[in-house]
Amino acid sequence: MDMINEVSQKVLGLLPGKDCNGLGGCGYATCEECAQAIAAGKGVDSCPACRQDAVDAIAALLGVATVEAPDKVVYVKCNGCAAGKERLAGIGSCTEAKEMGTLPGECQYGCLGNGSCVQVCAYDAMSLVDGKVVIDENKCNGCGACVEACPQCLIEVVPADVTNFIPCSSLDNENTTFATCGYGCIGCGDCALACPKGAIEMVVGSKIDGRYAKIDYSKCEGCVSCTVACRKKIIVDKLHDLTKVKEDIAFVKCSGGAWGHANLAEQGYTSCKEVVDAKLNLDELNVCEYSCLGFGDCVKVCRYDAITNEFGVAKVDVDKCVACGDCARECPRGKIDILPYIGIKKMACESDAAPARRLEICGMGCIGCGDCVDNCPNGAITVINKHPYILADKCLNCNVCSYVCSRNVIAETEVPEYNYLQASAMQLDK
Predict the structure, then answer these.
(1) Interatomic CA distance for residues 314 and 301, integer angstroms
(2) pTM here?
(3) I need a surface site. Which of 2, 92, 325, 387 has the fewest CB within 10 A?
């Protein structure tokens, strides 16, 4: 055995030890070929899977200066299921699934969920859970074999210490992305505008009118700016909890609906959209024409488990809601608003029906008695079309209106003290 081969065998013993079959980014078909190249003078960091201790050991063996070998991992730039994962499950490979094409309503850019990346990972760092690729960062060494295996080009090698990820590469336009996937980037560019380091670029397709945001990790400092600015709240942030740090909140403009919901359920309806599309005369069915229909179309699209159906009306869990707006967009009656997350009062009823009719068909709605208007010390409540409206710029949060309301429909979002403290710590209050 000549000297080069003898040294290359020693180098081979210092490499991670599992062959990536030429997919790992070193440019060689096998680990042995890579080791031979290193022994012949190729860079000591030629294997992208080598950690710093291995690079140092190889440099010492060869008697050359070591180089920095940043720890790396991979992440998948798709967090949704809109690419037809359920339909394509069990096809065999992602390449075969891609060749089958997408159907209307499916994302042509998303993860196909057949795990071709999992199959080539030699370090057992990737697994497939319910069609979603899960990465074990403790096992992943950033070799990059999975990058080559993904026909959708959704896997990226990044420094192991990065904290923000944008899990989408869709070039569909905003309207298509909204309709297709709750996790999709709509290309609004708010994150890029908010980034203080200019670390986010908007990737634009050559033939399609959409775009998506991409982080340049050489500039990113892991701050919270992009995460908070994201309209859809899809940016994965490993440091900050957006269920606590938020500027807005979803609010359901209805406090009742159980009686009307039950009447519609008896008629065989199962979704809010189905009721709206039927163009029913709701009053004839003893259903409030202004109420939440209570079938939970909004609940189904909420990614944060922040909305539930309670007694025929949608209820928002303020501790979980991040104001992504998916529920508001899904509600066919426009019963959900995205409002500032502050303590001002809000009227949880929009009924313009006569007070007697309100009492007849809803046990929890505003009856238009006017007590709140008469007792507000700052004139912050006015009546429009037989319905009280609270003027946020005049409201002092004195709670008089809540006290005098006999129907308990004036709502206030309680903002916990930790929200203010955490926001202050992240300099979000400036």
Answers:
(1) 13
(2) 0.70
(3) 2
